[in-house]
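Q: Could you fold this chain for me?
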Amino acid sequence: MTRLFLGRRGRGKTTLAYYEAAKVKRRIVFDPRGIIRRQGSAVCHTAGDFEQAIDALANGEVSEVVYAKPVESIKRVAFPKFTAEVKALIVARPELPIAVLVDELSFVCERSSLDEDLEWILKTSDPDVVQLFLTCHRPSDVPVDARAIADYWYIFQTTQEHDLGVIKERCKAQTVALVGELRDHDFVLWNDARGTVHEYRDPGEWWIPLKDGRPIEWAELSRVG
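A: Sure. Below is the predicted structure, expressed as structure tokens.
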């Protein structure tokens, strides 16, 4: 299952995406801005540490791995490593339910194309086992292949004409009308399978702190081990 979270900075899209992803027992997060620091998360900053932490997640030693503020190039090294390790885990453990959260998709993908392994995950993984959560500022920045396969769109206030046009291509006209009238942390949920739209105007139902305690710095844990 694939979910898109769309909105400008400060609206709450990453918080909402994390809130939904946290419902899954095992979670893997690509966090280029380094804003997710939850208690007990295994936080990695290098490709090598991330690889080790994924093994620990597969073995049940940790429940959440966050690849945050990579020291390597985000597009050329860190994100390809992220998607390659997620794909490898899915191939090795196809029965293992996981949530995969990619924050700020425009950091890692061009509008015209997807990372090869991310495309594989989107199109071939079991949607009942692997849940993808993708955030982006603008719907027009989400590659077409990702928009086409998304099961749910969580859309915060949108006013730019081009972005509204992208939403209109996929969603009902009612959705376009609603998103232009939303307040700061309100959003609408478009269910693509059913063709339905619902408004959500109480952020208190889902707003959680993304930094609620000291996570596990994987590099420190490795040195101790």
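A (continued): The helical segments are 13-21, 47-58, 74-92, 116-124, 144-149, 161-170, 173-179, 218-224.
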